[in-house]
Write a structure and sequence with these properties.
The structure is a single chain. This protein is of the alpha+beta class. The protein has three domains: about 110 residues, Roll (DNA Polymerase III, Chain A, domain 2), CATH 3.10.150.10; about 120 residues, DNA Polymerase III, subunit A, domain 2 (DNA Polymerase III, Chain A, domain 2); about 110 residues, DNA Polymerase III, subunit A, domain 2 (DNA Polymerase III, Chain A, domain 2). About 15% of the residues lie in helices and about 40% in strands. The protein has six helices and 27 strands. Strands 6-2-3-4-18-17-16-10-14 form a nine-stranded antiparallel sheet. Strand 7 and strand 8 form a beta hairpin.
Length: about 375
């Protein structure tokens, strides 16, 4: 293997791939990345068996080959170099890296046991505009579960119908639903459950690859999905389980509606959350007489209260929520009004905005003990 490439491009590719290197693994080779050369490119690939990433950069290749090298030391070394040409050569089972005034060599491992990147089907199942995919991820991913007690809830459900797509995420206490458009879809109906962890990496790539579109492929064995950014591909195992029938629990009618300015509500929640009790993170809302009161109290910190303007339709309400659920939901909305609808202090509540068509959020309230009141 012999190749010459550009240091900034190589450093970026190594940074993208090294993020997937597991901190601990029963397979020592997974601490490595696979480096290979083709006629005019240097290819870098890493996997943790759940996620895999493959990227390629232009290179002057004089001898093709492949090898695996320790990911983090190589990434740190290349990042420390000045922007310049970097020469890579495999010699006597060592990978030599040379620039104008520096030289290093790295221990290698035979790539024969390195897991291969999944083969994708010929046609993508969906093609997104990158900004549309970024929006759908931002509005849903945060609501997925982070613990593994119900693995299916750690994923985001994607459905495709008539060139429209719906993203759904829930952890059992809140639920986000966002609808969006696709550039094209090669199937009329499709349901995929993609781990939220995969979308963490997809979102990072969306901000760095510079492509206008991203294509989603199924692997040939149909148990993985592949995000193709042209110069970078990310593969993720699909969650093979039955997603909860969330539509059955969606409330259809509400008897209380409250409209508030998002910036006022966000400010109040942020300020009052300082006083939320550790553990439960409970904050209290009360709506009456054309205003909303947001408050919290803690035996360790004290108490805080803030009043905001609220257009109330349907009567008074006192209700409690996990403050982090409210903050994360508000971050997903644009800068406009928030419409909060509810039936009582125990039933699911809906959060929406006139400026965010096709997106809403459901949050379960926290049961208030007798005598508690916002």
């Amino acid at each position: 293997m012999k190749a010459i490439c550009n240091q900034p491009k190589l450093a970026k590719a190594l940074s993208q791939t090294s993020r997937l290197i597991p901190s601990r693994s029963e397979l020592p080779i997974l601490s490595n990345i696979l480096v290979s050369t083709s006629s005019s490119s240097l290819n870098i690939y890493a996997t943790n068996l759940q996620l895999s990433i493959s990227t390629q950069i232009p290179a002057e290749v004089t001898e093709e080959g492949e090898i695996t090298i320790p990911a983090l030391p190589v990434q740190s070394y290349i990042s420390s170099l000045l922007p310049q040409k970097v020469r890579i050569e495999l010699k006597s089972n060592r990978l030599r890296v040379q620039s104008e005034k520096t030289e290093a060599s790295f221990v290698t491992m035979d790539p024969v046991d390195y897991p291969s990147f999944p083969e994708k089907e010929k046609e993508p199942i969906i093609v997104f505009k990158t900004e549309e995919l970024a929006k759908l991820i931002r509005k849903t991913r945060f609501a997925a579960a982070t613990d593994e007690s119900r693995p299916v809830l750690t994923g985001v459900l994607i459905t495709i119908t008539d060139n429209r797509t719906t993203f759904v995420a829930t952890d059992g206490f809140r639920l986000s639903i966002a609808e969006g458009e696709v550039v094209r879809a090669t199937t009329d109906k499709q349901r995929l459950i993609i781990p939220a962890a995969a979308f963490n990496e997809v979102e990072k790539l969306l901000g760095s690859v510079g492509e206008n579109e991203v294509s989603l492929y199924l692997s040939t064995d149909k148990n993985q999905v592949i995000f193709d950014f042209v110069s970078v591909c990310l593969a993720s195992r699909l969650l093979e389980a039955e997603y909860p029938d969330y539509e059955k629990i969606l409330p259809s009618d509400f008897n209380i509606s409250v409209t508030m300015a998002k910036k006022d509500l966000e400010q109040a929640v942020r300020t009052v959350s300082i006083f939320a009790q550790k553990g439960s993170q409970t904050i209290y809302f009360s709506f009456k007489d054309g205003k909303g009161i947001v408050e919290a109290q803690s035996s360790e910190v004290g108490e805080g209260k803030e009043e905001i303007v609220a257009n109330i339709d349907g009567g008074e309400l006192s209700i409690a929520f996990n403050s982090s659920f409210i903050r994360e939901a508000l971050e997903a909305f644009g800068q406009d009004q928030i419409v909060f609808t509810a039936n009582d202090a125990l039933s699911p509540t809906k959060w929406a905005s006139p400026a965010d068509k096709g997106f809403f959020h459901i949050i379960m309230p926290i049961r208030m003990e007798e005598g508690e009141n916002a």
